[in-house]
Amino acid sequence: MNLLLSEKLNAIADGLADKGYAIIDNFLSPEEVKAIIELGYFSKGFNDFKKAGIGQRDEKQINEAIRGDFIKWIDRHTAPDEIMVYLHRLNELISFVHENLFISLKDYEVHLTMYPPGSYYKRHLDQFKKDDHRRLSVICYLNENWKAEEGGQLRIYEETNQIDVLPEAGRLVCFRSDMLEHEVLPASRARLSLTGWILDQYADLKHLS
Ligand code: OGA
Ligand code: MN
């Protein structure tokens, strides 16, 4: 079923209010995902990616045992149209959630992400200890024809149970950054996404690295 954007935003707001998370398919259409992949960031442009760290600024560390992904921050001033489509949609999500859930949201930060086969991100919370401006975590997957046996689930920990989400192309997962612990399980193929956070203050891109 292909919902209208307004229906998707409603479903996201409802999920956030009820459970602290929401999973929405077709946030990006198959064509929109394909257009992003065809920009070539994950292939010929992959040199621009860097190993993701843990912690922020001076405390940033790279720790392979905790997370194994590679990232490239997106600069909205130079982003190609194919990625702007996604950023505009995120802006609509921000306005909708801001108006309907009364969560103060001001801005976002987004990176392209690639987990090489076998890599993972251990159970964690997305808010940094000294900087809790990340209010919502938003991930949109870019993996066409992902199969369950390829692994790579996002595992979200609720109080009494856990939910596994396959990283299928176009699927958006949105959750409260301060509340929900989660992890990324290893996959047998490269796992691609647009990973972002919605902030309650303006993003300071100078500090993102
Ligand atoms: C993260 C993260 C989840 C995913 O980047 O902090 O938890 O499914 N990503 O990629
Ligand atoms: Mn996370």
Summarize the model shown.
With 209 residues, this protein is an alpha+beta fold. The chain is 21% helix and 27% strand. It has one domain (3-208): Jelly Rolls.
Can you tell me the CATH superfamily?
A: q2cbj1_9rhob like domain
CATH class placement:
Mainly Beta
Low-pLDDT parts are none
Do you know the CATH architecture?
A: Sandwich
Structural class: alpha+beta
Q: What is the makeup of the main sheet? A: 7 strands, antiparallel
The average pLDDT score comes to 92
Total count of helical runs of at least 4 residues: 3
Assembly type of the chains comes to: single chain
What string, H for helix and E for strand, traces the elements in order?
A: HEHEEHEEEEEEEE
Shape: globular
The separation of the N and C termini measures 38 Å
* Small molecules in complex: N-oxalylglycine, manganese (II) ion
Strands, count: 11
